[in-house]
Amino acid sequence: MVKFVLERFYLFAILMFCILLLTYPATFSKDVLSGLALWGQNILPTLLPFVLFSKLILATKTTSVKTFSIGKKFKFDTLLFRVYVNSLICGYPIGAKCTSQLFFKRKIDSATAFNLSLLCSNASPIYLIATISNSFLGGFGTPILLCSHYLSAIVNWLIFRKKSNGVFCTFPTKENPQIDTMTDTIFTVLNVGGYVAVFYMISQMICFVFSLDPTNPFVAFLMGLLEMTNGANLLSKCLDTKVVAPLISGLVSFGGLCVFFQTLPFIKQCKIKTAPYVIAKITQGAIATILCWIFSLVTF
Predict the structure, then answer these.
(1) How many Å apart are CA 284 and CA 166, to the nearest integer?
(2) What's the pTM value of the predicted model, to 2 decimals?
(3) Which letter, b or e, does each residue of 120-136 get, where b requires 16 or more Cβ atoms within 10 Å of its Cβ?
(4) What is the dihedral of CA 169, 173, 177, 179, to 10 degrees?
(5) pLDDT tens-digit profile of 160-200?
(6) Which partner from 39, 170, 247, 298 sits 20 to 30 angstroms from 23, CA to CA?
(7) What is the pLDDT of residues 240-296, one digit of tens each?
């Protein structure tokens, strides 16, 4: 029943957005361009090179699997650790994409893919430092944002992780890393830009239909639930920096619907159920908000 209602609501929302776009093409076409500008200025310069480098790392030939341990309880395969490092460097949605590639090649099972999707679900440090901290928060609390964001993913992984078989085996890759990797990189980056532009337009449509004021903190937060970069930008203009930093940390850790729809095809490929993943992302956002608030109290 719930699935039926959600599907009907999804179709109804798409129909309404299409009607609005046909009724006010000039207005909302400009919003698409504004969304592309937001992506081009804040995401593209850092995402493109790091995605390329991460793919070149994963494309290296691997003939064996090595593990290392932290204590007696936690064991990590070096291949999975490389995916985690790539997700830290590149941010959304590279962790989910790399995870789906391993699952598609039958190197990991679905439970391992779910665990990786939790641990590798984060924004890049360049995005947090350059865009969130420096551009939106005026350089406020960069270490606090980084710690709260990445610790929230680790805590979330400890809470929701499943028993898994780890890495099954690895095979030498047959791709041409210079050709296939660059092509896939361009498609990945353009895919992110398309989602950012569309969700920016949708947020503007919602404000237009319901006569919402984006300078209102509550409205700004709702816009962040749709697209985190736009929401973080709006929130930074509404509230004091010390108040808004935990909220932005929570938004970025949750990712918003824009990031969710970017990662959805990858988690579906890994046979991961949507509901547990969404619950885990909501929990991660809440954990990041609390951690950032605590760190802010202790530091300032």
Answers:
(1) 23
(2) 0.85
(3) bbbbbbbbbbebbbebb
(4) -130
(5) 988 876 555 444 444 444 456 788 888 888 998 999 999 99
(6) 39
(7) 888 899 999 999 999 999 999 999 999 999 999 999 999 999 999 999 999 999 998
The phi-psi region of residue 139 (left if phi > 0; otherwise alpha if psi is between -120 and 50; otherwise beta) is left
Does 143 fall in a domain?
yes
Backbone angles phi, psi at 108, to 5 degrees: -135, 160
Residue 189 lies inside a defined structural domain of this protein = yes
Total of domains in the chain: 1
- Distance (Å, whole) CA 207 – CA 120: 32
What secondary structure, in 3-state letters, does the chain show? CHHHHHHHHHHHHHHHHHHHHHHCHHHHHHHHHHHHHHHHHHCHHHHHHHHHHHHHHHCCCCCCCCEEEECCCEEEEHHHHHHHHHHHHHCCCHHHHHHHHHHHCCCECHHHHHHHHHHCCCCCHHHHHHHHHHHHCCCCCHHHHHHHHHHHHHHHHHHHCCCCCCECCCCCCCCCCCCHHHHHHHHHHHHHHHHHHHHHHHHHHHHHHCCCCCCCHHHHHHHHHHCHHHHHHHHHCCCCHHHHHHHHHHHHHHCHHHHHHHHHHHHHHCCCCHHHHHHHHHHHHHHHHHHHHHHHHHHC
Q: Is the dihedral of CA 83, 182, 191, 266 positive or negative?
A: negative
Give the range of the structural domain holding residue 112, as residue numbers without chain letter. 27-299
**Structure-block tokens of residue 286:** 């809440």
- The more confidently predicted of residues 87 and 176 is 87
Instruction: Assess if residue 176 is contained within a domain.
Output: yes
